[in-house]
Here is the input.
Amino acid sequence: MGYKFERSGNTDLNESELYKELGILTKDKSRWEESISYVSSLLEHDSVKIQAKALWLLGEMGLAYPDSVQDAVPAVASFCDSEDALLRERAVNALGRIGRGNYELIEPYWKDMFRFASDSEPKVRLSFIWASENIATNTPDIFKDHMPVYESLLHDTDDRVRMESPEIFRVLGKRRPQFVVPFIEQLQKMAETDSNRVVRIHSLGAIKAAASKTDLIYLVEADEQYADELQKFKDEVLEADKDNDDQFAGCHGLRDCAAAREWIAICNLRKNAETCGQAGTQVPSTTYFAVRNSDNKLVGVIDLRHHIEHPILASWGGHCGYSVRPSERGKGYGAEMLRQNVLNAAELGIKRMLVVCDEDNIASEKTILANGGQFENIIEVDGCRMKRFWIDTERSL
Here is the structure.
């Protein structure tokens, strides 16, 4: 069935007929991209119902085709100032969906969106939370300084808002657990005592998302503040793994550095393509420290190569290597480190992540499989047999 507005739109349709046609388009995603211009034009329609439907549909189209909806974003954002609560609600939601597809498109409106956390209409506040969840899915770092806003929504006067508010903590807990740590105690109290069953369930979900099997850890880029902890980590590895040729996986060069601070400085050089050569590598990479929240202890080190366009990396080096502190092994930290690093890879635009382990390293293989690793093949390098796995980073978001 063709659309009446297929080419230039049918201005003779009444509100009911036009709304029905938009409903048909909503279900036919194959026509979305070619219909963006027409749906955008409906933002000027004199019917609030049609405008609201167009805003919602542009949000969905923007998630699927963010670049194609770019020209419509200012018009969508203009409805944030509408006196009609429904239009404010739909505009905020649309910006969230578009922002999930490409944050840069909605960045000019990002900070202004926080006024909707205190909008007079509960549905608008609810839409703000949904929009935040969408944006946080692919761009979590921008939320670091805004967590108190979401804390206030945990105590909103509207039950629907309270039921949804823990969900932003769940989304961020999976990606940046350190942002959620200060609110764990509060979420735990809500999970145990809140009168609303959904609030209890969602609060518990947020806690579980942020916590590892034992204690909460988070990844931070290599920083001098952890130099003393890094030295202790190195000393432990040297003692416990002295017979292991791969004792410093993910820590290239650490064994030969006289001082921990020296190695951290080298890690900072490796982050950029322009300076990584000075650090002895041909491919830029980011080194992360896995830090336990409860005592600030460095429990592991993991790196992330920004690409593997190098014969060794493409064959058996892969996108990352990691080491867990000997005294902290067997606690699930390796799997959690890799999980968070997969999210880092996704944010960097790496769609498929190559991770390799020795054929007889059962623990590493389990860690990779736990994070969605798909076995490809076994290769032999200098007499060592290695298993190659690929992780779909987009599926992990």
About this structure: The chain has two domains: 15-210, 217-396.
